[in-house]
Design goal:
Two copies of one chain form a homodimer. By secondary structure, the first copy, chain A, is an alpha+beta fold. The first copy, chain A, is built from seven helices and eleven strands. In chain A, helix 6 (196-206) crosses helix 7. Chains A and B meet through strand 1, strand 2, strand 5, strand 6 and strand 7 of A and strand 1, strand 2, strand 5, strand 6 and strand 7 of B.
Chain lengths: 270, 270
Amino acid sequence: VTTRDHGDPGDAPSTPPPLQPPAGSARPSAAEQARTIAASTNAATLATLTVTGDPWASFVAYGLLGGKPVLCVSNLAEHGRNLAGDPRASLSIVAASSDSDPLASSRITLAGLAFQPSDTERDAARVAYANAVPAAGIFLDFSDFTLWVLGVQRVRWVGGYGRMDSATGEQYAAATPDPIAPAAAGAIVHLNADHPDALAAMARAFGGYPDTDVAVCTGIDRHGLDLRVHTPRGIAYARVGFQERLESADQLRAATVKLTHAAVANPPVA
Amino acid sequence: VTTRDHGDPGDAPSTPPPLQPPAGSARPSAAEQARTIAASTNAATLATLTVTGDPWASFVAYGLLGGKPVLCVSNLAEHGRNLAGDPRASLSIVAASSDSDPLASSRITLAGLAFQPSDTERDAARVAYANAVPAAGIFLDFSDFTLWVLGVQRVRWVGGYGRMDSATGEQYAAATPDPIAPAAAGAIVHLNADHPDALAAMARAFGGYPDTDVAVCTGIDRHGLDLRVHTPRGIAYARVGFQERLESADQLRAATVKLTHAAVANPPVA
């Protein structure tokens, strides 16, 4: 999954390979990751074109209509004038992260064409923006503010170091945000604080690292857990999958318990 | 200072005007605000142009060489290819904020031309990036990563609702980051928790609001304090200036005490 093949001058960190093939390594698709990140916040950076075709980066708040970002910007502001002059736009959204290294964060770029919605789509876009941006009541109906929807044609996802992929607009539209995402941060804290033995057992049985001493959960999604695995051979990154894709956050606890029981019942053959 | 003249449909909040002319309402210039925001973090969003001239927004880490952003991006990444193809670029930087409303945050756009520094400038840029981005050691010398410096030609600052201004590249280069900024958040908490009477006295004597009941500090910079003032006429926003511009954070406490004494000694004539 992870590649660090960047013309390595020789001193890049190396990770010990798995000793057994990992089981159940399903992950969210790039489109699913992108929908999840887009649904996780209401602030982003917009790139538009100035009248001379220069790229202009500006901070915006947004709501979501399906997966399509909804903006409400002043026609007097530079990005508002830019969109009126050329509808090409892209939006960079960064997922909240507790890591002090900004480059470890997950982020996406959604690129396409902005348009002014009409009729029922305008009504829905207005509601989507107002729901996502609590302060919108101050300016949503000011006559110089315009609602824009970004029709997404191309998606780029970067999931931290060495994890990245692209998706089409169609794949993005068809994907759904991970229903586990709002519960993930709390679950990670709980698992690391109270269930280190369970995490180590999962890494040994299913993660490909039977020599795991300690495993730390670094991510959870509807398909499984990301683990940082400490072994006598060094630190590696492993994946353990749930037995089936979760459809709601209230399935998370039972699925994790089930995975733990399966791991304890199936210790690796050393 | 604040204008909300945005084709107001009639229900926008209004603020009571000052009853006396405010004293000492000096504020940081847009260029100074921009230098301060740029110095406050190491993560931003870059806008570049794709091969077809489309705007591409992407998350980046950065360091600062003087006020010029330094980037280190992979030539394999879309933004790296974009910069190599067209040096026009802009960078949006958002100051950290404790406000739940993203649009209340301060942010800037720095626009100009990116270039690859050479000789001693390259060495300095490399150090600036490595100092700002602790993880840079992983990739800074990978052969497919390139250092870029953004030559800033144009600056736009937005300081939350209704506060905005522009600066030239020359003004930006000549300005300095506010030395008070790293101490501001702590000072604001302290003043609001322990010295509400001092803040109210300042607002009454110097802020133009002799009818202040309660004043809450919402910002501090080298030139003075921003106050949210609660009066029988409604809520307003006031500014009180220090008697001289501060040159270091360790002057902050004495300057605030001096301002408080002056306010108490000069109560407003009702």
